[in-house]
Amino acid sequence: MNIYFCGSIRGGRQDVKIYQKIVKKLQTYGQVLSHDDISEKGEGAMPGGDEAIYDRDMEWLVQCDVVVAEVTQPSFGVGYEIGQAMVMKKRILCLFRPSSGKVLSAMIQHAEGKLGRTLFQVRDYEEEDVEGILENYFGELTKN
C-alpha cells in the first residue's frame, strides 16, 4: 500500500516531532510517500525548486492508495493536496489536534459528512493517541 503523508512542511516546524512519529507508524502499513527530510529545517533546496516539489508531490498523490494529512497547522499546500486527492477519489484521513487551540477549517471538518466515511475521515487526536488511531484506521481499511 502506498500512503501519502502531508503536513505543513514550511509553516509547521513546531510539529516536526509529531510528523516524524506519524510517518514512523505509517511505515508499518506500507510505503510512505513523503518528504525525505521531515526535519527541524523543513524541506531543503531541491533541484528544480518549487516546480519540482509540485511535480513530485502530485506524482505521489497519483501513486498513493491513501492520503494521511496532519491538518492542525493551517497550510494552503495541504488544503490543495487534499482537494486534489478528493478529485482523484483517494481515501483520506485527516488528523487534527484540538489541544493546539486552533480551529479546523469547516471545509475539512464537514467533508466527511458530505463525502462519506469510506473516502474521507477526520480524527481529533492527542499526540499519545495517534498510533492507536492509525491502527484502527488501517485495520478497518485492510478488512474492506
UniProtKB/TrEMBL annotation:
GO biological process: deoxyribonucleoside monophosphate catabolic process; nucleoside metabolic process; purine nucleotide catabolic process
A UniProt-annotated Pfam family: Nuc_deoxyrib_tr
Superkingdom of source: Eukaryota
GO cellular component: cytoplasm; nucleus
Known EC number: 3.2.2.-
Keywords, in A-Z order: Cytoplasm, Glycosidase, Hydrolase, Nucleotide metabolism, Nucleus, Phosphoprotein
Single GO MF descriptor: identical protein binding
Main localization (coarse): cytoplasm
UniProt key word Ubl conjugation: no
Catalytic activity, reaction form: a purine 2'-deoxyribonucleoside 5'-phosphate + H2O = a purine nucleobase + 2-deoxy-D-ribose 5-phosphate; 5-hydroxymethyl-dUMP + H2O = 5-hydroxymethyluracil + 2-deoxy-D-ribose 5-phosphate; a pyrimidine 2'-deoxyribonucleoside 5'-phosphate + H2O = a pyrimidine nucleobase + 2-deoxy-D-ribose 5-phosphate
Family membership noted in the UniProt record: Belongs to the 2'-deoxynucleoside 5'-phosphate N-hydrolase 1 family.
Function description: Catalyzes the cleavage of the N-glycosidic bond of deoxyribonucleoside 5'-monophosphates to yield deoxyribose 5-phosphate and a purine or pyrimidine base. Deoxyribonucleoside 5'-monophosphates containing purine bases are preferred to those containing pyrimidine bases.
Subunit field text: Monomer and homodimer.
Protein name, UniProt field: 2'-deoxynucleoside 5'-phosphate N-hydrolase 1
Upper classification of the organism: Eukaryota, Metazoa, Chordata, Craniata, Vertebrata
